[in-house]
Structure formats: C-alpha cells, structure tokens
Write a structure and sequence with these properties.
By secondary structure, the protein is of the alpha+beta class. The protein has a single domain, classed as Immunoglobulin-like (Sandwich). Helices cover about 25% and strands about 40% of the residues. The chain contains 2 helices and 6 strands; from the N terminus they run ααββββββ. The strands form 2 sheets. Strands 1-2-5 form a 3-stranded antiparallel beta sheet, with no helix packed on it. Strands 4-3-6 form a 3-stranded antiparallel beta sheet, with helices on one face. The radius of gyration is 17 Å and the shape is globular. It starts with 5 loop residues before the first helix and ends with a strand.
Length: about 150
C-alpha cells in the first residue's frame, strides 16, 4: 500500500472510491516503469552529479544546485536545478536522493523526481517529495543518481 502523508493525500482522498481504485494501479505501474528505466540507466553507468565526467569533460547532465525546503504543508522536500549540457534532447531524466538519519547510520529512503525530456541547454527545476522523512527535524540527504537517456 502507498504510504502518502496526509497533507499530500487530501486531493486523492477526495476522489470517489472508484476513481481511487482506478488510479492506484496506474501509480504502481508508473513507479515500476520508473524503476526499470533507472535500472537500465545504472547498467549503462550513472552520470556524475558533479557536472564533470571521468575524463574531465563536462557531463551530459549537471546538478547545478539543490536544497532542502519546507513545502506549503510544512513537510520536507528537496528542490534544485539540473541542466542538459549536451546538444541532444535527453529523455527520462531523473534524479534520486538518498535519505539517512542525521548520523548517517540508517538509511531511511530513496526519493526521486523525473521529467520526460530535457532539451539541449534547458534547465529543469525538480521537486523531490520525501515520504518517510517528510516531517523529520534532522536527517542527511545526498544526491545518489542523476541520469537520462
């Protein structure tokens, strides 16, 4: 079952039960497709979030900035900007953050955001919703994957 914080669930809960029953499998399908896409990206090699490739040249995707903020419900989210430094349109661009307790002793979750495509030179402002760490006062976050096809 999806664990959705109450503040994020209100619109979903206002839907008729028949609509919720229709949407739930679609959300699960989207999640599974995203995981398959991420797995294939891992096989091809993760793009470095520093903006530099291993040979010193600029990489395809660059994580320009990121920060932890509170959303309109007072819950933690991660926002930031990614830029496409290539001359090609990249598809299935995603960023994933690992979330740990403040001592980085226990991993809490991985949370991601994605966009269908990102044109050459375009900037994408992402919003990573945190589920398990949404209301924590202290935690540690770091980008663990930035990829696109």
């Amino acid at each position: 079952m999806l664990n959705i914080p109450k503040s994020h669930a209100s619109a979903y809960e206002r839907l008729p039960q028949s609509m919720q029953n229709t949407i739930r499998p679609l959300l699960v399908s989207i999640l599974l497709m995203s995981l398959v896409t991420l797995a294939s990206c891992v096989e091809e090699g993760v793009i470095d979030t520093s903006g530099q490739s291993s040979n010193g040249q600029e990489s395809a995707l660059e994580l320009v900035e990121w920060q932890i903020e509170k959303d309109e419900y007072g819950e933690n989210i991660i926002t930031g900007v990614v830029v496409n430094n290539t001359s090609d349109t990249l598809e299935f661009v995603s960023i994933t953050f690992g979330i740990w307790d403040s001592d980085k002793e226990f991993k809490i979750e991985d949370s991601s955001d994605y966009i269908d495509s990102l044109n050459p030179g375009d900037k994408w402002k992402f919003n990573v919703v945190l589920w398990e760490a949404a209301s924590l006062e202290e935690f540690y976050a770091e980008p663990i994957e930035l990829s696109g096809l």
